[in-house]
Amino acid sequence: MDNDPKRLCALLRIARTENGAAAEPELATALRQAGTDPELAAIAKAEAVFDRTMAAKLREGIAVPADLRARLLALDPARATDQPEPLAVPFPPQARPARTWSVSITGLAAAAAVFIVGALVLRSPPAATPPAAPTEQPTAALAADPLSSLVQAVAQRMASPPDFEYRGANLDDLRQFLNNSSAPAPWMVPAGLRDRPTEGCATFLIDGSPITLVVFKGDHSYRLFVAKRDDFPGCAERYRPAVEKVAGHAVAVWTCRKALYFVTSDSTEANFDDLL
Amino acid sequence: MASTDPTTTPDFAELVTAHYEGLYRFALSLTRQEADAADLVQQTFLIWATKGTSLRDPSKAKSWLFTSLYREFLRLRRRAEPFVGAEPEMLEYEAEPIAPDVVEATDASVAVEALQEIDETFRAPLTLFYLENMTYKEIAETLGVPIGTVMSRLSRGKAQLKAALKRAQKSAAAARLSVRDDSPEENHG
Question: Does A11 sit within 8 Å of B42, measured CB to CB?
Answer without folding.
Answer: no
